[in-house]
């Protein structure tokens, strides 16, 4: 038997590629994984984990300062070196031995190198700097899980100024004195929060506002608290030119003519797919494009038909459905099980909420933005629900007006919003803004995914005195 032939070949060992391999092995097929950097991908080393570690100490300090008794015990500021050390450990010191060992343990061969599709079901891996290659052949499927990287916009001088991307922001061993941030999305909001907490003087150029795709109150509360923390948030501001001087200072000239000087500039205006050099031309697709997929995550061409006989799949960031680790891993479970089912000639259950469909990607995506306050949301915002043609009713409640919140912290500030589909009497969207609301989100996710009728939710009684009592207040606000 050709030892380079497997049932499935996965290109990319980020969180998504790892989980695809796991499902395929669980299903009794063989699989090989190709990775050119670190097993674990962006999330483990330069995204979710290190950034949340950078944010967590500041959040813990704020929480302690909001509770009399604990407040008095806090006698200093953040220990920056200790925060960075903890971050380093959460990034596994940028070593992937642990995750590579896991692949070995579950019986998945790892090919280290750059993977490129060369023909139907064949992936060539360039394994070393000498250009040595090995070709892997898949009996059933190839899955592209190559993720995404930062988008650097065409701002004059920006590339030459060697800006920070999310990678440098996540992994820096120093805190710049002055940090300018271009962008107002999730990365910009979280990194402005983290670096302000670590002592940097931060300016945010939020051309399109802060967290513009969330409920408006979310962005407003984050802007207010960033400003309270000393961050200069310039709404509507856009960089026109960027220049780094010999002493390292970066000068940004805005379209308004104003100038901002900083020690580093972080660019955080979105992502592009890692598809430039993966052999898409070999299957009639355009290198550099996001991959479009059908309901079972098979890559489709311009006409909407699967590539070839449907042997090519794409999951995670690279298909642009949802750029979040947990949704990518959810897709991984679906795609892994689908490939196994098709290989065994079993029926594929790709109907709405079917075992092989990633239905939640459409209308039930949970996300937590770890700013101050935390923004936890699932499903549609009111604006998105209206744009989707739903007849909705919005119910808001002040999170501070719940017994559990008053106990949680002095001067607790927050807001909750429930978006109800009036025709079906179910929740289609839920957003919480407040300290420590992240862990409240899953209840809302279950209500949205389960399409639990409002009159049944009255029987889901929140414990007293918890912040979850906001559920009762929202139902009372809606009326019985
Ligand atoms: C700063 C930041 C913070 C984030 N925080 C969160 C968060 O808190 N929660 C959350 O859910 N999401 C978060 N995300 C998003 C999350 O990181 C991504 O959604 C997730 O990493 C996508 O996983 P993936 O496996 O699709 O891609 P990736 O993690 O990008 O992994 C792809 C892998 O493929 C490899 N690869 C690429 N091309 C090739 C090739 N040709 N050959 C071989 N290997 C290749 C890469 O080296 C990489 O290891 C964050 C993103 C950023 C930028
Ligand atoms: N906690 C989390 O879940 C988390 C944290 C970080 C990142 N992520 C994920 O990573 C992805 C990337 O995050 P991101 O913040 O880079 O992207 P984003 O899409 O969240 O935000 C980018 C922002 O930049 C703005 N923008 C676009 N082009 C611009 C330009 N030329 N000049 C100025 N502003 C411009 C957009 O209006 C948008 O608000 C997101 O999809 C997000 O889901 C998730």
TrEMBL record:
Pfam families, sorted: Pyr_redox_2, Pyr_redox_dim
Annotated cofactor note: Binds 1 FAD per subunit.
InterPro entries: Class-I_Pyr_Nuc-Dis_Oxidored, FAD/NAD-bd_sf, FAD/NAD-binding_dom, FAD/NAD-linked_Rdtase_dimer_sf, Pyr_nuc-diS_OxRdtase, Pyr_nucl-diS_OxRdtase_dimer
Binding site for NAD(+): 183-190, 270
The keyword Membrane belongs to this UniProt entry's keyword annotation: no
List of residues binding FAD: 52, 115, 146-148, 317
MF terms (GO), sorted A to Z: dihydrolipoyl dehydrogenase (NADH) activity; flavin adenine dinucleotide binding
Keyword NAD (UniProt): yes
Cystines in this chain: 43-48
UniProt signal peptide: none
Ranges of residues in domain FAD/NAD(P)-binding: 6-329
Keyword set, alphabetical order: FAD, Flavoprotein, NAD, Nucleotide-binding
GO biological process, any: 2-oxoglutarate metabolic process
Top-rank lineage group of the source organism: Bacteria
Domain Pyridine nucleotide-disulphide oxidoreductase dimerisation: 365-471
Entry cofactors: FAD
PANTHER family: DIHYDROLIPOYL DEHYDROGENASE, MITOCHONDRIAL, DISULFIDE OXIDOREDUCTASE
Similarity field: Belongs to the class-I pyridine nucleotide-disulfide oxidoreductase family.
Protein known as: Dihydrolipoamide dehydrogenase
Native organism: Actinacidiphila yanglinensis
């Amino acid at each position: 038997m050709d030892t380079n032939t497997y049932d499935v070949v996965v290109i990319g060992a980020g969180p998504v590629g790892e989980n695809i391999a796991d499902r395929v092995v669980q299903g009794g097929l063989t699989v090989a994984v190709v990775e050119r950097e670190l097993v674990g991908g962006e999330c483990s080393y330069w995204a979710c984990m290190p950034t949340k570690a950078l944010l967590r100490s500041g959040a813990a300090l704020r929480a302690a300062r909001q509770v009399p008794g604990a407040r008095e015990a806090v006698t200093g500021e953040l220990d920056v070196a200790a925060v960075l050390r903890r971050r380093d450990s959460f990034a596994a010191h940028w070593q992937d031995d642990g995750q590579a060992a896991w692949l070995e343990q579950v019986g998945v061969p790892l090919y280290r190198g750059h993977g490129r599709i060369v023909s139907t079901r064949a992936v060539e891996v360039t394994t070393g700097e000498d250009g040595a290659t090995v070709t892997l052949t898949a009996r059933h499927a190839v899955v592209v899980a190559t993720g995404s990287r930062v988008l650097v916009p065409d701002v004059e001088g920006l590339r030459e100024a060697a800006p920070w991307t999310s990678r440098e922001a996540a992994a820096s061993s120093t805190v710049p004195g002055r940090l300018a941030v271009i962008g107002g999305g999730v990365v910009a909001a979280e990194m402005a929060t983290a670096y302000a907490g670590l002592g940097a003087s931060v300016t945010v150029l939020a051309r399109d506002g802060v967290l513009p795709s969330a409920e408006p109150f979310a962005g407003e509360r984050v802007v207010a608290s960033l400003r309270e923390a000393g961050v200069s948030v310039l709404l509507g501001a856009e960089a026109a030119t960027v220049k780094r001087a010999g002493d390292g200072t970066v000068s940004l000239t805005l379209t308004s003519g104003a100038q901002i000087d900083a020690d580093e500039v972080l660019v955080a205006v979105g992502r592009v797919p890692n598809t430039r050099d993966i052999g898409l031309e070999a299957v009639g697709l355009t290198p550099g494009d996001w991959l479009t997929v059908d309901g079972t995550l098979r890559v489709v061409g311009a006409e909407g038909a699967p590539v070839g006989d449907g042997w090519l799949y794409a999951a995670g960031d690279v298909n642009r459905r949802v750029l979040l680790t947990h949704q990518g891993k959810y897709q991984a479970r679906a795609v892994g099980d689908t490939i196994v089912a098709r290989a065994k000639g079993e029926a594929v259950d790709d109907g709405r909420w079917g075992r092989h469909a990633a239905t939640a990607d459409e209308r039930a995506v949970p996300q937590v933005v770890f700013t101050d306050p935390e923004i936890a949301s699932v499903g549609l915002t009111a604006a998105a629900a209206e744009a989707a043609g739903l007849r909705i009713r919005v119910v808001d409640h002040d999170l501070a007006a719940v017994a559990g919140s008053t106990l949680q912290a002095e001067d607790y500030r927050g807001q909750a919003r429930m978006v109800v589909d009036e025709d079906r009497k179910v929740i289609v969207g839920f957003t919480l803004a407040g300290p420590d609301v992240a862990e409240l989100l899953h209840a809302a996710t279950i209500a949205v995914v389960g399409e639990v009728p409002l009159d049944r939710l009255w029987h889901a009684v929140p414990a007293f005195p918890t912040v979850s009592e906001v559920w009762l207040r929202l139902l009372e606000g809606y009326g019985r």
